[in-house]
Amino acid sequence: MFNFITLFLPAEVSSKKAAPVLQRNGRLLRPHDSPSLQKAVGPDWRLWLTSDTCEPVDGLASAQAIAGCSSVSDGSRWRKRGYSEEQIAQMLVQEREFVQRQQEQRFLSAQEDGREWLRIADGLAALGVDRIGLLLLGYYSTIALSVPHPVPPQRHWRRSVLQAADLVAFEQGTLNWLDLS
Fold first, then answer.
1. DSSP E strands: which ranges in the chain?
2. CA angle, 18 as apex, 16 and 20 as ends, to 5°?
3. Among candidates 68, 65, 67, which has minimal Cα distance to 1?
4. Fewer CB within 10 Å, N- or C-terminus of the chain?
């Protein structure tokens, strides 16, 4: 699956002013032509993709994906190969430790992505932007970016109380409005 973040900026915000804020944080502004999303938010908003490629899975709205990768085998495959129960127990401990380290690394990466988006929000606020929207959508192909979208559920946040972990916990497919003032 390919994840893309759509940034919703007020129509009066110049892309020439906003682009450097995103570029300082490793992002870009590329127009996102989605008539169905545009219709959902109205003419006062412009839609922008913030990357030329899909987003990493360890970022915005990734909390569920990180928690979901905690599978540890039950040892049956090692039993079939003739390992002793003592060896299997040892391998299961190592596998659990590996999965836990992997989850911790993914969570730290996701937290950094959340902080990056908070810096972007703060930079846009410094330009006088009062509100932005963030929508992470997953597609099974990049061609699907142009297909009609249903009206996404919406959630509102105040930047003054928003933490990086909140951005990591965003739900994919939910349009998150951030009030920056």
1. 2-10, 30-31, 45-49, 131-139, 154-158, 175-179
2. 80
3. 65
4. C
Joined tokens for residue 25: 């944080």
> Are β-strands 2-10 and 45-49 bridged in parallel, bridged antiparallel, or unpaired?
antiparallel
- Give the separation between CA 123 and CA 129, rounded to whole angstroms: 9
> Reading across the β-sheet that carries 154-158, which strands appear in turn?
30-31, 45-49, 2-10, 131-139, 175-179, 154-158
**3-48 pLDDT per residue, tens:** 788 899 999 999 999 999 999 988 889 998 888 889 999 999 999 9
The one-letter amino acid code at 13 reads V
Rg of the chain, C-alpha, whole Å: 20
Nearest to residue 162, comparing CAs of 173, 149, 140, 177? 177
User: With contact defined as beta carbons under 8 Å apart, do 6 and 37 qualify?
Assistant: yes
